[in-house]
């Protein structure tokens, strides 16, 4: 073999592996990232699905009938929570950021606000100091409270108040540590503007801990909060607050604005009359507490207008009664019922033949299959004749309001463990029982025109229109995970029936209906949703 | 497989055509008989062998004159005469190669031959659509080709071949299995230059069609989706072939073994990765789109060839 021949072979042997190595490259890591589904949240014009491993939101929209569009919005790493605003216009995504932040480029914890319309986009992103686990949202859309931070040392009473209306995200956050005697925040109540004796109106944030109560003035979030010590429970220990109600004396009639607090382990009810700030105080308000006794642990409390004026109503189902407290004088009146009502909802504005004076309330019970209309305008004068009870098919666990203004006269009452619900027409005082599949879920359309009922993991769903109370059933070809009714870009509405494959290999599919005119023969099935937007 | 049978048919057809063409050319390339041990009658120098211009577009190597009569009992060692590329030996006697085959020093069957080649081609595809099917950029294909030299002139020769290449990748995208199989059928003309009898360089241009068969598993739909578009494909490469087996003599008709390496660029017209649902369930399934597949990139081919 000649020298040239030998050298040629060696050269070839060297070139081939070099070309191999030089030509190989890794693909986009997106393809190798398994899909792990986080929360799925229906918004007004889109459905947001947390793609947990990619720290993204899959935003499903429907540009037109039978048409699904999928886009991706990047959010912070390690999504802890995704919570929609009450009107479902926005989605708030709390992310913990990089677990081990070792470099400047590593992500910090963030709060991402997403506009959830037909063209979803990121509205604002707030960088947080520490990773938080929990989020509370202001129903009015002004504030978000971030709390329960993680870390080696955790200050449980530290809250981060985010002013969502501030134009400068860097200066929109107020960090506040509540004065504490050992408790930690459990529940937040945002009030409407409450009128002080001076005429000033302040929105308040009531923070319930397991041991006390703090009241923050949202008009001046930098001010000190008002801390209210709670009474001792009869069984020992501190009374645990679980119920908060408020009343605004908008007419400045002199009755005053009030807060009221009920407890899960005590029959006491605490009222707090709001006052102007005391001189030289760092607090924006003052409160005058008053402790009342309802005789048994109340299931709910609410301020109501009766024929005798403002009263704090406390339902005490153990005694099949309600106690009406006059917050000004602390005097109480007792109304005996035929059943143990556990819930109350004021329906004064929507009920037919509403009295000129006093509220009308809907009473419902999770203990007995009954509801009642309570005319509070005669509750003081003729308490025994102030309510009318109606037997229903189920014990009521929750009362759902219909969104929007079209069907404010309707309530949906769902049972705790039943296979049905009923539609209550407050205007006509009629109820329409609806039988449903066992374990059904109910999804209200944000426009308040219809509801969708379905049995999770089943293949059947039904649409109930509020116009005619007409349920129509449909069949889909894959098990149902959830149903969302969203606005389309073309002005119509689509119902997105989500199908989920669980287990090691998670996946998503969608069956699209025209929500306003559904037809099983005009659906569109879309799979491969998790692959969209990765090319 | 349907694609395989088509490729085989093409190869057989090409072989038949090539054989008949070779038969017409045979007189020009027929080796002269080996020298006889018996003294040949003295005669005037033989006339040059007739050329077969009508059978071959290029002048065939002129056959060497008959050897002068010599008395030898055993074949002589070949003379260490310099190699005359493509030219007839000038000496008046034909030497022998190591294997005792008469060697007139010509390229002979080193250059003019049929060949059958098998090997592997790797194409480095940077296209993002290819990522759907592979976790790196390499597309390896088995390659099978059959061809023949159509024309030669000195160290230059021109040939053509039919090739079939098959290969693919499989992977998964976020858990959904995918696969891609590429069948390429090409006609590849090439030009060669012999540096020596056992080594030549070549440039090759291939054009044809590629059948891009791919599948995507649809876990929600519960079925596998597939598509099989046919796309135009072309590739250009340069390379070298080294003869590793075979007699030194160009007169030998014994088959030769070659190692062939070439590299270049391969282009296949792009196709959308849009997977429609083939079954009826779920009804009215929307297609799944995974972008665009464009199989093009640098390519390297290593093959073993047999020429005859």
Q: How would you sum up this structure, described in words?
A:
The complex is a heterodimer of chains A (535) and B (308). Chain A is mostly beta strands. Chain A contains 1 helix and 42 strands. Chain A is globular and about 80 Å long. Residues 1-6 of chain A have low confidence and may be disordered. Chain B is mostly beta strands and 308 residues long. Helices cover 9% and strands 47% of the residues of chain B. Chain B has 1 helix and 11 strands. Chain B has one helix at 2-29, and strands at residues 114-125, 138-153, 156-173, 176-196, 199-218, 223-227, 230-245, 256-268, 271-275, 288-293, 296-307. The model of chain B is unreliable at 1-91 (pLDDT under 50). At the A-B interface, helix 1, strand 41 and strand 42 of A face strand 3, strand 5, strand 8, strand 10 and strand 11 of B.
The poorly predicted ranges of chain B are: 1-91
Number of helices of chain A: 1
User: In percent, how much strand structure appears in the residues of chain B?
Assistant: over 45%
What count of helical segments of chain B does DSSP give? 1
Unreliable sequence segments of chain A = 1-6
What overall geometry of chain B do the principal axes of the alpha carbons give? elongated
The biggest chain-chain interface is: A-B, 46 and 50 residues
Largest sheet of chain B: 8 strands, antiparallel, barrel
The level of helicity of chain A is: under 10%
List the helices and strands and how they pair.
The complex is a heterodimer of chains A (535) and B (308).
Chain A: H1 3-23, E1 37-42, E2 47-51, E3 56-61, E4 69-74, E5 79-84, E6 90-95, E7 110-115, E8 121-127, E9 132-137, E10 143-149, E11 158-163, E12 173-177, E13 185-190, E14 194-195, E15 201-202, E16 204-209, E17 212-217, E18 226-229, E19 241-247, E20 258-263, E21 268-275, E22 286-293, E23 300-306, E24 309-316, E25 321-325, E26 332-336, E27 343-346, E28 360-364, E29 370-375, E30 387-391, E31 396-401, E32 410-415, E33 420-425, E34 430-435, E35 441-444, E36 450-454, E37 460-465, E38 470-475, E39 482-487, E40 493-501, E41 507-514, E42 524-526
Antiparallel strand pairs in A: 1-2, 2-3, 3-4, 5-6, 6-7, 7-8, 9-10, 10-11, 11-12, 13-16, 14-15, 16-17, 17-18, 19-20, 20-21, 21-22, 23-24, 24-25, 25-26, 27-28, 28-29, 29-30, 31-32, 32-33, 33-34, 35-36, 36-37, 37-38, 39-40, 40-41, 41-42
Chain B: H1 2-29, E1 114-125, E2 138-153, E3 156-173, E4 176-196, E5 199-218, E6 223-227, E7 230-245, E8 256-268, E9 271-275, E10 288-293, E11 296-307
Antiparallel strand pairs in B: 1-2, 1-11, 2-3, 3-4, 4-5, 5-6, 5-7, 7-8, 8-11, 9-10
